[in-house]
Design brief:
Blueprint lengths: L8 E8 L2 E10 L3 H15 L4 E12 L1 H16 L3 E5 L3 H9 L8 E2 L2 H9 L1
Helix pairs in contact: 1-2
């Protein structure tokens, strides 16, 4: 069962009454799990979440499909007048944001607590 750790696992929780965190562990990459995660996040937005944090602290890798999902969610949040922050990207993941220049668009924080603090302000 060694391949299990390579899968994308997501957990959703509220840190404040109005802040939702989607915590992603494993590989934020092309596949069924990523599609499920995207539709789950879309549902959260439809239900009225206006402050969202994508927590990548435990995400090992993000590929172009994963980045696409993050950018799509970012766009959805902007359309509904919400805010989204990305927390805890490791060096490899941060590099993808930097190479694709999405780091200029996305609000990136070193860790989850920083994102929470910024959304509470």
């Amino acid at each position: 069962m060694g391949t299990l750790a390579m899968m994308l696992e997501t957990e959703v929780f509220e840190v404040e009454p109005d802040i939702t965190v989607v915590s992603c562990a494993g590989r934020f990459t092309l596949g069924t799990q990523l599609r499920l995660t995207e539709s789950m996040i879309n549902t959260i937005i439809q239900k009225g979440t206006r402050k969202l944090i994508i927590d990548l602290t435990h995400a090992e890798v993000v590929d172009s499909a994963g980045l696409g999902v993050i950018m799509h969610v970012f766009g959805e949040m902007e359309q509904v007048g919400g805010v989204m922050r990305v927390a805890g990207a490791n060096e490899r993941v941060a590099n993808i944001f930097s190479v694709t220049h999405t780091n200029a668009i996305l609000a990136l924080d070193p860790d989850l607590m920083s994102s929470v603090k910024k959304l509470k302000e």
